[in-house]
Amino acid sequence: MTSWLDDLAARQWRAERLLKRCGCPASLRRRILCRHYRRSAPPAVQAQARLFVEFLGEPGHRALSLAAEWLYYRAGMRSAWLGCSSPREVAVADVGAVSETLQDRRGGLVIAALHTGDYLQALTGLGRCLGGQTLHLIRRSRDPARDARAFRRFAAAGIRTESIGHGSGAARAALRILRRGGIVALLYDLPPRWGRSARVRLFGAPARMVVGPVALARAGNARILPVHNGFDRGRRLLVRAGPLLEPGRQPHLLDPVSTTLQQLASFAERGIRRQPEQWHHWHLLPEFFAPGPQALPEPSA
């Protein structure tokens, strides 16, 4: 059964293909489709615009434009992983320093990805900096066929990958990998329903974020490399890495887990504010600020 987003992704892909045949460059195709979403203002765009007003303080007209772009990027990412559109070019900012970090064999490394842009495609860019090491992914699998397409992209880029699933079994497997000096990649911008959480400040208010990625790194005496990715105005996907965090190697801190988690939350907020239209967890945002499940329903188109 396909979702409304799958249907929208297919329609958007057909429209982009037609515009491309007419000679429209990628940036113009994006503007045309975003203008269409803004003018038609489907419920998904209206709901997203309200979030941009409430949490980012954007004026109404700007919020509506950002919401139209948000819908465009969500459909575009879904189209890519449905196998419709071709992979985007990936560039890694400060690639020399990132490669040095990824190839440092003095301990394990957790790549903590913010769910923006197209994080799996961004990992293919980082994978080229691994120096032949295996990239182990912690992620929940909902669609085996889609996952197979994703892993074929890693293979086509010459990157060795292994999925270790999601949940307590995956955490134990990841801990063994980190203690052997391996590399584990996961999403970290998740609210409490995804596991044990701790308090952070997010968008200027008290919130809670899952503590698992930080606890895992500390137990495995591993470092954390936070990464954010986003599309530029053309077709390129740019990956930016944050400062290297070491929750297990900071004995001077009274609570290194909470301190590191706040550093991750601050990095996430900066990345979201930089390109708010490309964060894919906006519908989960109320859960970060509430004691129980308060996720917004996925809006229909």
Write structural notes for this entry.
The structure is a single chain. The protein is an alpha/beta fold and 301 residues long. The protein is 48% helix and 15% strand. It has 11 helices and 9 strands. The chain has a 7-stranded mixed β-sheet, sandwiched between helices. Helix 1 crosses helix 2, helix 1 packs across helix 4 and helix 3 packs across helix 4. The longest helix has 22 residues.
List the helices and strands and how they pair.
Elements: H1 4-21, H2 26-40, H3 43-56, H4 60-81, E1 90-92, H5 95-102, E2 109-113, H6 119-127, E3 135-137, H7 144-156, E4 161-163, H8 168-179, E5 183-187, E6 197-202, E7 205-210, H9 212-219, E8 223-231, E9 237-241, H10 256-274, H11 285-289
The Rg value, from CA coordinates, equals: 19 Å
What percent of residues adopt helix (DSSP H or I)? 40-55%
Structural class: alpha/beta
**Got a strand count?**
9
**How far do the termini sit from each other?**
16 Å
Globally, the shape reads: globular
In spatial order, strands of the major sheet run 1-9-8-2-5-3-4
Kindly estimate the percentage of residues that lie in beta strands according to DSSP: 5-15%
Number of helices: 11
What kind of sheet is the major sheet?
Answer: 7 strands, mixed
Strand and helix order = HHHHEHEHEHEHEEEHEEHH
Poorly predicted regions are: 292-301
Q: Mean pLDDT score, rounded?
A: 86
